[in-house]
UniProtKB/TrEMBL annotation:
Organism: Streptomyces uncialis
Classification via SUPFAM superfamilies: OsmC-like
Taxonomy, superkingdom: Bacteria
One Pfam short name: OsmC
InterPro entries the UniProt entry points to: KH_dom-like_a/b, OsmC/Ohr_fam, OsmC/Ohrsf
Name this polypeptide is given: OsmC protein
Length: 146
């Protein structure tokens, strides 16, 4: 498994850009702030990561089934008792498989299962949690949990 690094820099009030080492960028802002649109919220990026990871894994695990029309929709639901966390993540795989092709349906279902049981790093991290450290400029850890 690869290690990753993303740098997030401030452009202005509630306006940030995340960049990876390969030069890709994504704008991050508050959904209710018209001055930073178009942008993704941090939670939307989490949903995009879950869907994107699932898609990349499906390209590998279900490659014998044509799936060019695959759409992966990820939705979050939170309640007040979730205390600032996403309560439920729902990942929906939408595709028109050939009618009567039981093998295609089995391969596709197996790909979805393997995505979440074994291969999608994002899904597995969300499902099981990760250790998080917040490091200050002097190198001390201000927060750690997981």
């Amino acid at each position: 498994m690869a290690d990753y690094r993303v740098e997030t820099v401030r452009n202005g009030h509630r306006d940030w850009t995340a960049r990876n080492d390969r030069g890709a960028e994504v704008r991050i802002g508050a959904a209710d702030d018209p001055g930073v649109q178009p942008s993704f919220t941090p939670v939307e990026l989490l949903l995009a990561a879950l869907g994107g990871c699932g898609g990349l894994v499906m390209d590998r695990t279900a490659r014998s089934v044509p799936h060019d029309g695959l759409v992966i929709r990820v939705e979050s639901r939170s309640r007040p008792e979730d205390e600032g966390r996403v309560g439920v993540l729902r990942v929906t795989y939408e595709i028109d498989l050939p009618e009567g092709d039981d093998r295609a349906a089995e391969v596709f279902e197996r790909g979805v299962r393997l995505t979440h049981e074994k291969y999608c790093t994002v899904s597995r991290t969300v499902e099981h949690g990760a250790w998080v450290e917040a490091v200050l400029p002097d190198g001390t850890v201000a927060f750690a949990a997981g």
